[in-house]
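Problem 12. The chain below contains 386 residues. Write out its predicted structure in token notation.
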Amino acid sequence: MNNLVLRGIGTIVSGDLNAPLMAGDTIVVRDGFISAVGLEADCDAEGIDRVIDVGGATVIPGLHDNHVHPVLGDYTPRQRTFDFIDSCMHGAVSTMQSAGEPHVPGRPNDAAGVKALAILAHKSFDNLRPSGVKVHAGAVLLEEGLTEADFDDLAAAGCRLVGEIGISGLKDPGEAAVMTRWAQARGMRVMVHTGGASIPGSGVIDADFVGEVMPDVAGHVNGGPTALPIADVVRILEETSAHIELVHNGNIASLGEIARLAQERDELHRVVIGTDCPAGSGVQPLGILRVLSYVASFGAVAPELAVAMASGNTAKLHDVNCGLIRVGFEADLAIVDAPLGSQASDALGTLAIGDTMAVAALIIDGEVRFTKSRNTPPTSRTVTFR
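Solution.
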């Protein structure tokens, strides 16, 4: 059974924007779920022998990448890279959301083909978690000819995502809006590509397109690869209910400006974070960690709120039982700290000055996936596992 105790925690970051910091120094995990959070004396850890002494470091929820483009398994033909999901896991990512599987060699562009591909991808990752990472795949890419009955079939098969509208064949916003309503009526989350063209076949998409389609997420508003004008971001926030997404593979200056805008408008709850990898710029194992540092340093957002944008916000959007440090939630937890030699004194301070947090361990469903990240520097504090 996945039972363990994390003790000696310096700071607990909940992932909840409304209460981002939690009192206490201990988290208890039973059967892969969080069973207690608080002071060690108040937490029932009876019968649990597996103990991690965090040594004053910080614990955050496992991070949730809202924008990846998987294929099948832990391989991407886009960059001919194996184990890219495992590598992102070493950057504290425990959950990923597909924004479509456009990099499949010979990807079909007919209605029957894209439906079959989405179902295959969903079922494949439902049976396989690379390195334990929860990859929610099977994001259908819209093509002309899809019918409402097709969305019944997709939903019945467990598919809950529509890939970035604008990177596949369907380009008409009116048709896309009709299919979006079909998808949303079946509990599927819909993303629209925004900004400039990214891959052959994609196009430029602005606030007018988003306003007509009314998706759940306006993808990479800070650039994919080029950013929307800030006026378009304001229109999306004012004229739609969509979340806006900030990604690593975009414009960093725009990212900071949009983060400040969302904070000024008191709409940080509508911001989610992704990497948009694999991309032309490669695979970014520390992409989510880097975006957190950009949001905190360039966007002047409190680091604990930045963490929530890459955990609790995304989990709430997709209605999954992770992303929060809360009793009853899946025990996806990252032990993080200031990297050795940092000018910062702890993990949150690291984000505030624009550095990348060091990751000591990632726990998924109560299972310790590693005890030293291969992609970040060592932590300033000593974490002890027994």
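Discussion. The domain at 63-318 is CATH 3.20.20.140 (TIM Barrel). Students who got a different answer should revisit the alignment rule from Section 12.3.
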